[in-house]
Structure formats: structure tokens, C-alpha cells
TrEMBL record:
Residues 1-24 form the signal peptide. Pfam families: Peripla_BP_4. NCBIfam families: PRK10936.1. It is found in: Cell envelope. One of its GO terms (cellular component) is cell envelope. It comes from the Bacteria. This is Protein TorT. InterPro entries: Peripla_BP_I, SBP_2_dom. Residues 57-311 form the Periplasmic binding protein domain. PANTHER family: D-ALLOSE-BINDING PERIPLASMIC PROTEIN-RELATED. Belongs to the bacterial solute-binding protein 2 family.
Length: 350
């Protein structure tokens, strides 16, 4: 073989080892808890290789205002492409827009969707719609936001009290038993997940020197959270920790600096978004618990296809949460947590 032929053979062999068309490395097996029977069983989730036909899946998000839902959008779109199914995605614009999400649900049904995946603004608000969908033989999959009692075919989430407890445990460790006042900004009251986060956080702090001194509820827009944080800082000058949804932490970075308390108040998010990753790397925060929205979204698409094709599926897979800190970030699988920085939300896969 000539040198030129050897070089070409090397290039061909390398090409065979590389993903084509920018395809990402497999995201599986993924650690999950299977709660289908009520008892968590740790298992490795492995998706289908391909769908048998081009199913039409409709997806409803509460909004795309923060990078967590943008990451979920990325997971939905990429897994739909990998499996070869069609997706139409609607977002309601915020947790105050339940009527809009209900109308979007009707649009999914009217468009003859084969399955509907919903990040519910409110479990109580969507319960009747879930039942309507099921009565029309349309599988209903709940995604990210918890659905405890409403009728769904499957639900993909994480245990939010566990996430709250993870954050509270980290707070207690970092303050080493010292008394501290904590202002909390869980998110929009009535959405389900903020209350669940707070439940785990509060229970972990009970009987410790760390005390919740203020609770403020509100939409997860940064502007809304900024008003709440500023009000709390003005009301109580002795706050030592701010814990809450990432938009609250984004708002708090500037608000704390403006109040002249930078370095005196610890900021602790209840879950992750792209800004929290930047804050962790720059030192504004020390860690965050993970929902892994990319992974949850991928699993939701796979479960929808499994249901439609009559294959076995987990009725209630929960992501195994971790606390990401500067000490372990190099070992964390960030591809399951964040969309690429270049990603822009997409509303359809054809």
C-alpha cells in the first residue's frame, strides 16, 4: 500500500469511529429510580433504538423563559430526531397563563396528536384535560413538574423534596452549625414543584440553627424575583442565606451587591440553569442540585414512543439527583443537564 493509500485508509477508519452529522454520543444508560410500583428501584434506563413509525407527539411547556426549560426543549428535539418522530411544541409564556396552556392542550388534541407530553403549569388545572386526553386514547406523559394524583399514563420527574433536602444539607454543612436566617423564594405558588422543593428544604432544617425567616412566592421571571428579593433584603437586614429558584438567585446576585452585602449573604439555588453553572464557576454560588432536564425530556419522548408501540415502559422514572459543586463538577455529566450554549429553542421536528 502506498503512503497516500495508507493515509486515506487511516482517514476512513477514523471517520468510522466518529459520530456522523454532529450526532452526540449516546446518553444511555442513565441512572434512574423506577417508581412504577411505588418503591424506588435504581435502574439503568436504555431507550429504543428507533421508532417504528413517525408518531406525532405534542409537547406543552409552561414557558421558555429560563435555561432549564430551554434545556428540556433541547432534550425533546434531539431525542425526537434520534428516534424519528414528529414533535410540535407549545409554550404558555409563564405560570400565570394556565388558560393559555389549557387552550394549547386543546390544540394538541385537535391536531390528532398520538401522545401529549406536558410540563404542567398546575396539576389541579390540567387534571381534567389529562382525563379528556385519556378518554380519546391519547397517552398523557407528565414531564418535570410533579403530578401526584392527576390521571396520566406516565410521569418523568425527580423527587423535589429530595432536591430541597440536598440543598438544605449543603447549607448546614457549609455553615457548620452556626445560626443563620434564610430567606426563601420557591417559585410560583400552586405549581406543585415549588411547594415540594420547600417541603424537603424545610424538613431538613427543622431542629437546626438555620431558620427560615421569610417566604416569598412568585413567577420565575427574573424581574418578578428581583422585586421579591429586594423587598426581603429591605425588610430584614440580618438575612444570611437566600435559597430559591434560579431566577431568584440571578436577581439576588445584583440585589445583594447593590445592598452592599456581597460576600455576606450566601446564595443557594434549588435547582440548576445555565446561569447557575456560570455562577458556580465564577464563585457567586457554591453548588446546585440537579433536575437534569435534558435527560428527563429525552426519557419522556422515549416513553411516549414505547406506549404508542405497545412496548414495556416505566410508569414513573425519577432522575437520580446530585449536588454539583466546584469539587465534583468535572465528573458531572453536564450533557444531561444543560443545552449547548449555541442552542436556540425549536418548536417542531418534522
Amino acid at each position: 500500500m502506498s503512503p497516500k493509500q495508507s493515509f486515506l485508509a487511516l482517514l476512513l477508519s477514523l471517520a468510522a469511529l466518529c459520530p456522523m452529522n454532529g450526532e452526540a454520543a449516546p446518553w444511555w444508560p442513565a441512572k434512574t429510580y423506577d417508581l412504577s410500583d411505588g418503591t424506588p428501584i435504581e435502574t439503568d434506563y436504555v431507550p429504543l433504538p428507533k421508532a417504528e413509525k413517525k408518531w406525532n407527539i405534542c409537547v406543552l411547556f409552561p414557558h421558555l423563559k429560563d435555561s432549564l426549560w430551554v434545556a428540556a426543549n433541547y432534550g425533546i428535539v434531539e431525542e425526537a430526531k434520534r428516534l424519528g418522530v414528529k414533535v410540535t411544541l407549545f409554550q404558555a409564556g409563564g405560570y400565570e397563563n394556565l388558560p393559555k396552556q389549557l387552550s394549547q392542550f386543546d390544540d394538541c388534541v385537535a391536531s390528532k396528536s398520538d401522545a401529549i407530553i406536558t410540563g404542567a403549569i398546575s396539576e389541579a388545572g390540567l387534571a381534567k384535560k389529562f382525563q379528556e386526553g385519556l378518554s380519546k386514547q391519547i397517552p398523557q406523559i407528565a414531564l418535570i413538574n410533579p403530578v401526584a394524583d392527576a390521571p396520566v399514563t406516565a410521569k418523568v420527574s425527580v423527587d423535589y423534596p429530595t432536591l430541597g433536602s440536598l440543598a438544605a444539607g449543603y447549607l448546614l454543612d457549609s455553615h457548620a452549625g452556626k445560626a443563620v436566617k434564610v430567606a426563601v423564594f420557591p417559585g410560583p405558588q400552586g405549581a406543585g414543584w415549588p411547594e415540594s422543593f420547600l417541603k424537603g428544604f424545610d424538613e431538613k432544617l427543622k431542629g437546626t440553627p438555620a431558620k427560615i425567616s421569610d417566604i416569598k412566592w412568585g413567577d420565575t421571571g427574573v424581574a418578578v424575583q428581583l422585586r421579591l428579593v429586594e423587598d426581603s433584603l429591605q425588610t430584614d437586614p440580618d438575612i444570611g442565606v437566600i435559597w430559591g429558584a434560579p431566577p431568584a438567585i440571578e436577581a439576588a446576585v445584583g440585589a445583594v451587591a447593590d445592598a452592599g452585602k456581597q460576600g455576606k449573604i450566601d446564595l443557594l439555588p434549588s435547582y440548576e440553569n445555565q446561569a447557575m453553572l456560570g455562577f458556580l464557576r465564577s464563585g457567586e454560588i457554591k453548588g446546585f442540585p440537579t433536575i437534569a432536564p435534558v435527560l428527563e425530556a429525552r426519557i419522556a419522548i422515549d416513553i411516549a414512543v414505547r406506549i404508542l408501540e405497545g412496548k414495556s415502559y416505566m410508569k414513573s422514572p425519577n432522575i437520580v439527583p446530585i449536588m454539583v459543586t466546584r469539587d465534583n463538577i468535572s465528573k458531572a455529566n453536564l450533557d444531561n443537564i444543560f443545552a449547548p450554549e449555541s442552542w436556540s429553542p425549536s418548536y417542531s421536528v418534522n
